[in-house]
């Protein structure tokens, strides 16, 4: 009788709270893509506070080497896809053969759809989808998310946890050795520039279609996809760790913070020899971004699961539960035009600074309301 009373109070709520914190963090991540990053510059114009100026600078990608907060958006999403995988997935050998086959096929379907949606996102503006296959950009953010998730899923489904750890470490080290010491013609051999890195040869030789802005190196190119798998794998390890220690929130929080610190320390130290670079997706970049990702997850876990401050989390969860719609919508719908159409009168009479707040705040509000409408009707479009 005691087990009947304890079962619902221990197992069920923990699962719901954990999922809310992950959805909230995913929504927080996507919030900046909706237009949230533009508010810092607007607030700086109004207040003149240097804090907002720093925030506006952090909402720009690094010019080349280095790291900004905006550089974290993409790898954080990959990391969270791994966390969800680590929480829910298990080896396919533990399923009946027919169910295992269905799970594998669903994974392949997800990969293909994300690649297709990525191509659609790339050509959502301007002249539209090119008629010639050679003019299509096949590499994409969604494609990388699909590839990193799928390879991580295959490892979870088919190999042991120990092997997964070995693969993660091996990828980081081999990628570093490859870019640092292997050269093909004049490319590589420790050249980490946009024109001379070994990645250029891979993209020019194997990447079909065109590259981003017809540059020699695509930021979502062939070789750097390999290292992004580790972002997902570290997410898998963290997801498993959360499940294992879910009964002791304080212990889990402390360990997550310590792990985040170790990853950041290793990443910044390695960055002295192998520069932190988003486009090359260097091994130091992987460690730094996963370090900050774990730190953010610990923060959201503490606020949502431990302190139980859930109301604010639901604001971001509304975004996080339909993240694919958020991302595609940012390319296929001109939300800035829509905001101007609805709030144009207020924008014209508002003083400088406030014009941008009304414009971009309107964009955020309109997108959030659409997502909230889907959320209330439990319409979650997932791939």
Automatic annotation (TrEMBL):
Residues spanning the membrane: 31-52, 72-90, 102-121, 141-158, 165-184, 222-243, 252-274, 280-303, 315-337, 357-375
Keywords: Membrane, Transmembrane, Transmembrane helix
The name this protein goes by in its record: DUF5009 domain-containing protein
């Amino acid at each position: 009788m005691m087990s009947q009373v304890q079962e619902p109070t221990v197992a069920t709520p923990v699962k719901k709270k954990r999922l809310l914190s992950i959805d909230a963090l995913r929504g927080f991540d996507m919030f900046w893509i909706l237009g949230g990053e533009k508010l810092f510059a607007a607030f700086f114009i109004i207040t003149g506070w240097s804090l907002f100026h720093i925030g506006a600078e952090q909402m720009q990608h690094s010019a080349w080497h280095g790291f900004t907060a905006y550089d974290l958006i993409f790898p954080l999403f990959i990391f969270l896809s791994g966390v969800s995988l680590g929480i829910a997935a298990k080896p396919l050998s533990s399923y009946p053969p027919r169910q295992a086959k269905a799970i594998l096929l669903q994974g392949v379907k997800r990969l293909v759809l994300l690649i297709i949606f990525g191509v659609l996102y790339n050509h959502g503006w301007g002249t539209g989808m090119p008629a010639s296959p050679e003019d299509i950009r096949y590499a994409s953010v969604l494609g990388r998310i699909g590839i990193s998730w799928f390879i991580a899923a295959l490892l979870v489904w088919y190999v042991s946890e120990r092997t997964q750890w070995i693969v993660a470490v091996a990828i980081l080290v081999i990628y570093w050795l490859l870019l640092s010491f292997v050269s093909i013609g004049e490319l590589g051999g420790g050249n980490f520039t946009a024109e001379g890195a070994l990645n250029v040869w891979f993209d020019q030789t194997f990447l079909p279609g065109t590259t981003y802005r017809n540059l020699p190196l695509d930021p979502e190119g062939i070789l750097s996809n390999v290292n992004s798998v580790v972002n997902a794998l570290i997410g898998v390890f963290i997801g498993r760790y959360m499940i294992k220690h879910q009964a002791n929130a304080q212990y889990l929080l402390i360990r997550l913070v310590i792990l985040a610190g170790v990853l950041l320390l290793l990443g910044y130290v390695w960055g002295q020899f192998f520069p932190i670079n988003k486009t090359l997706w260097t091994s130091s970049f992987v460690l730094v971004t996963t370090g900050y990702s774990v730190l953010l997850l610990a923060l959201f876990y503490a606020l949502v699961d431990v302190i139980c401050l859930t109301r604010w989390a639901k604001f971001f969860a509304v975004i996080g539960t339909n993240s694919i719609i958020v991302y595609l919508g940012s390319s296929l719908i001109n939300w800035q035009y829509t905001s101007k159409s609805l709030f144009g009168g207020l924008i014209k009479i508002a003083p400088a600074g406030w014009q941008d707040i009304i414009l971009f705040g309107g964009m955020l509000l309109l997108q959030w309301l659409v997502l909230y409408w889907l959320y209330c009707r439990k319409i979650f479009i997932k791939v």
